[in-house]
Amino acid sequence: MLWPGVIRHYKEFLPVTGKTPIITLKEGNTPLIQAEKLSNYLDGTVNLYLKYEGLNPTGSFKDRGMTVAISKALEEGCKAVICASTGNTSASAAAYAAQAGMKCVVLIPQGAIALGKLAQALIHGAQVLAVKGNFDQALTLVREITEKYPITLVNSLNPNRIEGQKTAAFEICDHLEVPDFQAMPVGNAGNITAYWKGYQEYFHKGKIRNLPKMLGFQASGAAPIVEEKIIENPETMATAIRIGNPASWRKAEATRDESGGLIDKVTDEEILEAYKLLAEFEGVFVEPASAASLAGVIKLQKTQFFRRAASGRVPTVVCILTGHGLKDPDRAIQTVKEPKLVSARVEAVIEEIGMSNKDKR
Amino acid sequence: MLWPGVIRHYKEFLPVTGKTPIITLKEGNTPLIQAEKLSNYLDGTVNLYLKYEGLNPTGSFKDRGMTVAISKALEEGCKAVICASTGNTSASAAAYAAQAGMKCVVLIPQGAIALGKLAQALIHGAQVLAVKGNFDQALTLVREITEKYPITLVNSLNPNRIEGQKTAAFEICDHLEVPDFQAMPVGNAGNITAYWKGYQEYFHKGKIRNLPKMLGFQASGAAPIVEEKIIENPETMATAIRIGNPASWRKAEATRDESGGLIDKVTDEEILEAYKLLAEFEGVFVEPASAASLAGVIKLQKTQFFRRAASGRVPTVVCILTGHGLKDPDRAIQTVKEPKLVSARVEAVIEEIGMSNKDKR
């Protein structure tokens, strides 16, 4: 039962050979949690599962791709990796580079990012440089540098990232079955592309007999694919999907169309509601972007989408929860109420709990 | 390969029957990471492994015990659980109670705890009450309430917690072998007791042929077992082990003596150094208390402890890393340096990285 990480477990599907040095923090094999209470909340119209990707080593799904990207970089003799990132990518790159004994450089736009978002990259020893410019300029620099210098790009433009990320689709098939629908947040749109690649590869290998319909959800203030235009100033509290011009835009559209699915948008209010439901109903704490998947499913359910789609049985829906709630503690703190003060007497506490003397054992 | 959580996987060793409703977030089966660079750092005197318990669902080892405690509470018809806790216990209790559809009450001492430490309990819907008193008074209240009212105590006094926690020892044996030494932080001392119970049960069942020596480490400012006296005002930045009068004090001493191990103390400086080494050398981010295990191993290595203990081969040491670094983001932020500002030019970035024109591809 010892899980060896995604490369060793799925090596026949990945661009590795016996000579590839494997850099792993034992990412993958994340929980698939049956969400009975949420299924009931959705009037029993779906059989809902949660794929809890926040339990990857650095707290997000990025680790699946980073194990491949860093292992391949090491195989190619690379001594340093670089990315422009404000959050989960830099955390993952820094951790895997540390494990590989490689230098990791992270470029961020000046002044735009709170130190808390960078704490992981910094603690793992990455060299974080704040560039006098915006995020696009940082990304342009990263591309130029990696073209000219022997430093490997580990932004999502690196195709090994997608290769690793597709293993999550394999796990869902191995652990459960092919779901009827898969729901997930869409930001840069690399991950929906990766899952679809995974399902297709399993299908072509004969490991599964059908394919899921892919449901992607963008935040309303950052929904370029839904609105079919670049969003110059994307806005959403779901920072991990605050992207106005997705790198994998066309591939995400192809995924949507080939699978017979859809890409829709959900408001920050809907995301926050789903964020609370996951924590209070199922005990699963996610970063806000992750909750877009459930928010989308709730939105569709209200339109009878799943009832119409059902063919004699309740459809299975897997929601991808991309990151752990501990990634964004400020959001949690803003969401909750201060504890109430009570005197240190049994009766006072019992009254607050809503019990009284008559409830005694 | 679908992991069903610790109760289903280890049910023959746990106080459950076919009738026990199983409340799980798929805790357990956490990574065991071979730490080659740290082994080298320790002059090759040990073969070091890291058991990354921070990858349990709520980010700490507490989930292993909580799945058992909450499942048993539900089986017994209990509608509510209560604990006095300032951190990991309350997060875990709240998450599992949410999954079970039970009420969870958390008592905290007034004014002593930052909201960030309570964010998880609150987001999972626990009723958190600040008691006008100190932690001991909160704990006394919890005990009185659970004696008089039909509410289940889920502090570590609940024996089902220890039962669940022992499964981590099973996993180490199943995944690797019996280590020669196991190193871990010691606070309330329940966990060292739980691991020892696990190893002993496997030994008596004939699943393993020898037992590890148990090495426990307290923080210097909170080392009652080492100093053989209650510490009235324990002080350490490793908050998860800031305990002056451990509940399982005698059992921890028995574990130490029966296993032929030791319980020692490490300074906050040593803990912080180990905390950074784990992140920078192995890509593993832990909460400070977790680093006490590695700090202790480093301290012992300096005294030639492992060389003396070696009998013809390099001994295997497993360090238990009890919680994820994301549990204590403030500590990480205090530890790291602000990113350096650079102009948005390739040459400027390349110079900062320590490269120049001659390094071009």
pLDDT < 50 runs, ≥5 residues of chain A = none
Order of helices and strands of chain A: HEHEHEHEHEHEHHEHEHHEHHHEHEH
* Spatial strand sequence of the major β-sheet of chain A: 1-2-10-7-8-9
What separation lies between the terminal Cα atoms of chain A?
44 Å
SS content category of chain A: alpha/beta
Radius of gyration computed on alpha carbons of chain A: 21 Å
Determine the number of helices of chain A (DSSP H or I, runs of at least 4 residues). Answer: 16
- Percentage of residues assigned to helices of chain A: 40-55%
**What is the oligomeric state here?**
homodimer
Number of strands of chain A: 11
Largest interface: A-B, 94 and 94 residues
Average pLDDT of chain A: 95
Estimate what percentage of residues of chain A fall within beta strands: 5-15%
* Shape summary of chain A: globular
Major β-sheet of chain A, in short?
6 strands, mixed
Structural features, described:
The structure is a homodimer of 361-residue chains. The first copy, chain A, has 361 residues and is an alpha/beta fold. Chain A contains 16 helices and 11 strands. Chain A has helices at 6-9, 36-41, 62-75, 88-100, 115-123, 135-148, 159-165, 167-175, 190-204, 224-227, 249-259, 268-282, 291-302, 305-309, 329-335, 346-353, and strands at 32-34, 47-52, 80-84, 103-109, 127-131, 152-153, 181-185, 213-219, 262-266, 316-321, 340-342. In chain A, the strands form 2 sheets. A 6-stranded mixed beta sheet of chain A has the order 1-2-10-7-8-9. Chain A has a 4-stranded parallel beta sheet with strand order 5-4-3-6, sandwiched between helices. In chain A, β3 (80-84), α4 (88-100) and β4 form a beta-alpha-beta unit. The longest helix of chain A has 15 residues, at 190-204. The radius of gyration of chain A is 21 Å and the shape is globular. The mean pLDDT of chain A is 95. At the A-B interface, α4, β4, α5, β5 and α6 of A face α4, β4, α5, β5 and α6 of B. β11 (340-342) of chain A pairs parallel with β5 (127-131) of chain B, so a sheet runs across the interface.
